[in-house]
From TrEMBL:
<dbReference type="InterPro" id="IPR006640">
    <property type="entry name" value="SprT-like_domain"/>
</dbReference>
<keyword id="KW-0645">Protease</keyword>
<feature type="domain" description="SprT-like">
    <location>
        <begin position="6"/>
        <end position="156"/>
    </location>
</feature>
<protein>
    <submittedName>
        <fullName>SprT family zinc-dependent metalloprotease</fullName>
    </submittedName>
</protein>
<dbReference type="Pfam" id="PF10263">
    <property type="entry name" value="SprT-like"/>
</dbReference>
<keyword id="KW-0482">Metalloprotease</keyword>
<keyword id="KW-0378">Hydrolase</keyword>
<dbReference type="GO" id="GO:0008237">
    <property type="term" value="F:metallopeptidase activity"/>
</dbReference>
Length: 162
């Protein structure tokens, strides 16, 4: 986290010299999980980073991802809320201010998350796998019928790990 905060400060000092004004520093967390390397919460002045992706890709993360998210906060502060997330204002900050390519997405290897499927059955011979979200909706009373045979889908009590 110390290196992220140092890189963040470098970005802000560069912006302050360039625009001749100060910018409030954001709160920073390393609690983001999943596919995204970072997320900027514009109205909360908060940056969330993916700790696992940072540990696995530290050099590129510090060089590209931290400025990428800082540029979102700076663009919002400088140009307002009506700009596109990766629009010309953000691109201008990435290339003109930070001297970096304006890449929308990272190319870090993200391990596939294991997932569970809940097996449902109808009059058809094969099982129908439900996601955890859809299974939770059934538990709260939602009902589903098979699009092929029209009969009600019922939970078999079985789960499948993928």
């Amino acid at each position: 986290m110390e290196l992220i905060m140092h890189r963040l400060e470098e970005c802000y000092q560069l912006a302050e010299r360039h625009f001749n004004r100060s910018f409030p520093r954001p709160q920073v967390t390393l609690d983001l999980r999943g596919q995204k390397a970072g997320v900027a919460y514009l109205y909360r002045n908060l940056l969330r980073f993916n700790g696992q992706l940072y540990r696995e890709n530290a050099e590129d993360f510090l060089r590209q991802t931290v400025p990428h998210e800082v540029a979102h906060l700076l663009a919002h502060t400088l140009y307002g809320e009506r700009i596109r997330p990766h629009g010309k204002e953000w691109k201008g900050l990435m290339t003109g201010l930070f001297g970096l390519p304006a890449l929308r997405c990272h190319d870090y290897q993200v391990p596939r998350r294991r997932s569970t499927r809940y097996l449902y059955r109808c009059a058809c011979p094969e099982h129908m796998p439900f996601t955890p979200q859809r299974h939770a909706l059934v538990a709260r009373g939602r009902r589903y019928s098979c699009l092929r045979c029209g009969s009600m889908l019922r939970f078999t009590g079985q789960q499948q790990s993928l």
